[in-house]
Design goal:
This protein is mostly beta strands and 657 residues long. The protein is 9% helix and 37% strand.
């Protein structure tokens, strides 16, 4: 085969690969939208966020299986790494290599000839090097190893392919491969047949000034090589994938890698891949214009043994750790993008959480002085108030979430969703509605708080049914809230009626209406106008982002808002510049699933202000909006000039009792 024939074959193969339709992930998402309305208290008007099982929008999860996929007992082969080396399992190969070298996985190993990995002692970026032009020349001290399934060059076809192990040696025609890599480059070659019968080839290029230790390192890496025709790990999602790190988990080895895929907002993605069939594969990156200092852009996959947490955080983060709701902490690694990546102000956080945990882990981020950068984070382990089994909804849990803002009451069914609010505070009186939640196939739940005299709680439905509840002591006496009442309302009973509290003698100590009571007016005409404007904007965004745009805010811009939702006076002013009588759209971004709220989908903040005639701002109000993956709207209210969802908190004080 002539050089021209070879180049034509390579060109046609490249075009064929480009024409493939990339697989789209099936989101492994278990969630139930649940909104808790704070009844007559209305202190924060919080709709508790949807609870997500190990996924977020923007996270792609792809698992390829086949009849030949290894079973969990036939886990990936991971070579023992010498000192200073690390081992990585790829779909069709495993290798141990120096920790400061760069491993690139290419191709999918399903056809020959095709490269499957590339190892260099220099940063190649996201590029598979072939040295077909002068621009591909390697440095005098560079080392490049390429391993392929099949034969890429015509002379290789006549070379015998003995069984493994083989040695890298001078090729039969040293001038016929990668001739453009530079003058004086030493070329080594190997060809072998794997136990499955597949033929593999390897080429190593060593610059004329390569260090002896680097020459020895590439030979040791080649000796550790393992290849397989059956995928031993989950697919890597890019055409060219740069391995950033690897770690061991109880499920087997997991690789962290970067790849490129054009999309609005960014082109680089960060992903993980575990053993074949493990369900750990996923990526995060598209549309992430602004990387927060909190953990909103961190994702996770959790199961019975623990899980893997990964994502991108701001470059200002100096240290990170993972916190489970059980109060356990785990070390998190911070990984810098290689210099060749066009990434500004971003780094990667990732690590392993071991042991049984719930489906929520918070990534705590610290600056160089040790200050927590998260705006909302756990301050202690979750405290169980009560648990039980409902004949209709199954196992349930009533608990306290201890956070940086205080302790909030939460409820969830084990197989469904849940949520809560923040934060419990001492109150005057003996009985007060806390909130209610409904959705999915489980019963609705109503919670109330009471003094020591609260002994019994009953829901009197407008349809005539009376549902008996339960009363439990709250373990944390410092909250000044002695008791909590819980009523589980069967799905066939409309959630409208009165919640009634009684003392031990059967005397009624309080009665609260449960149902749609509408939204209260502001205490002054100016505040009422600001609240109504934000509510109008909230409803417009929720409608626009649900069905018409497939539960996504990816395409939301100020131009789109003005065109599609002209009834609201929108603007794009940033933090510090709220505009009276207008609504600012701030921080549109994919939601993270790792916050205590368990958010999924997309989030943003809506901000408006009240001002004087001279243009000065006297007060600011915001609504944090979450459009979850099911199209549900979850909201939070505050008085901050918020730059994004996380900063809008605390409720509207004028509604506090």
């Amino acid at each position: 085969m002539s050089d021209l024939d070879q180049e034509l074959r390579e060109l046609l193969e490249a075009k064929a690969r480009e024409g493939d339709v990339p697989p789209k992930p099936e989101p492994r998402v278990l969630k139930r939208a649940r909104r808790r309305q704070l009844g007559t208290a209305l202190s924060a008007l919080i709709g508790a966020a949807a609870l997500v099982a190990a996924s977020i929008v923007g996270l792609q999860a792809i698992v390829r299986t086949s009849p030949d996929t290894p079973t969990p007992g036939d886990g990936p082969v991971l070579p023992d790494p010498p000192d200073g080396f690390q081992s990585v399992a790829l779909p069709f190969a495993s290798i141990a290599y120096p920790k400061d070298w760069f491993l690139v996985a290419t191709g999918d190993g399903s056809a020959a000839p095709e490269p499957i990995l590339q190892l260099t002692n220099f940063e190649p970026g996201l590029e598979s090097l072939r040295c077909v032009s002068g621009s591909d020349k390697i440095a005098p001290d560079a080392v490049l190893l390429r391993v392929s399934i099949g034969t890429e060059i015509s002379y290789e076809e006549a070379v015998p392919a003995p069984p493994w192990p083989v040695e890298l040696a001078t090729p039969p025609e040293p001038g016929a491969f990668m001739a453009a890599c530079g003058d004086g480059v030493e070329k080594l070659f190997a060809k072998w047949t794997s136990p499955s019968g597949s033929v593999y080839t390897a080429h190593a290029l060593l610059g004329p000034e390569v260090r002896p230790e680097d020459r020895d390192a590439v030979l040791r890496a080649f000796d550790s090589l393992f290849v397989t025709a059956v995928p031993q790990t989950e697919d890597l999602l890019g055409t060219v994938n740069l391995i950033l790190d690897s770690t061991e988990t109880p499920a087997g080895p997991v690789a962290l890698y970067a790849y490129e895929e054009p999309c609005e907002g960014s082109t680089h993605w960060v992903a993980i891949a575990g053993p074949s069939g493990s369900g750990l594969a996923g990526s995060i990156g598209c549309g992430q214009d602004e990387v927060p200092t909190g953990d909103e852009s961190v994702s996770m996959h959790l199961n019975e043994w623990g899980g893997v947490v990964w994502g991108e955080v701001a470059a200002t983060v100096a240290r990170a750790e993972f916190w489970t709701v059980e109060g356990k902490t785990f070390h998190a690694e911070l990984i810098q993008f290689p210099p060749g990546f066009d990434v500004d102000g971003t780094q990667i956080v990732w690590g392993v959480v071991e042991g049984p945990t719930t489906d929520r882990v918070t990534t705590l981020l610290y600056d160089e002085e040790g200050n927590v950068l998260n705006t909302y984070f756990p301050a202690g382990p979750r405290i169980t108030i009560a648990e039980g089994i409902d004949p209709e909804g199954g196992a349930w849990l009533l608990y306290l979430d201890v956070t940086s803002e205080g302790s909030g009451l939460g409820f969830n069914f084990e197989t469904g969703g849940g949520g809560g609010g923040c934060c419990l505070k001492p109150f005057a009186g003996d009985f007060r509605l806390d909130g209610w939640g409904s959705g999915g196939d489980e019963p609705a739940n109503i919670t109330a708080i009471g003094s020591d005299v609260l002994d019994r709680v009953v829901f009197e439905a407008a349809s005539g049914e009376q549902i008996e509840g339960q009363v439990f002591p709250i373990p944390d006496a410092s909250l000044g809230v002695p008791k909590v009442g819980l009523v589980l309302v069967p799905g066939d009973v409309p959630l409208e009626g009165d919640l009634v509290g009684y003392d031990a003698d059967g005397n009624e100590i309080g009665r609260e209406f449960v149902g749609d009571i509408g939204e209260p007016p502001g205490p002054t005409p100016e505040i009422d106008a600001a609240w109504n404007l934000l509510r109008q904007a909230r409803d417009a965004i929720s409608h626009w982002g649900s069905r018409p745009n497939q539960n996504s805010l990816a395409d939301l811009t100020i131009e789109v808002a003005n065109t599609s939702m002209p009834g609201v006076p929108w603007n794009a002013s940033g933090q510090g510049k709220p505009v009276p009588g207008q609504v600012s759209i701030r921080g549109v971004a994919p939601a993270g699933g790792s916050e205590l709220t368990g958010l999924s989908g997309w989030t943003l903040a809506l901000v408006t202000a009240i001002g004087e005639t001279d243009g000065s701002v006297t007060s600011t109000y915001c609504i944090a909006v979450n459009i979850d993956e099911g199209g549900g709207g979850n909201y939070r209210y505050g008085t901050q000039d918020a730059a994004g969802y996380e900063e809008c908190r605390g409720g509207w004080p004028e509604l506090q009792p």
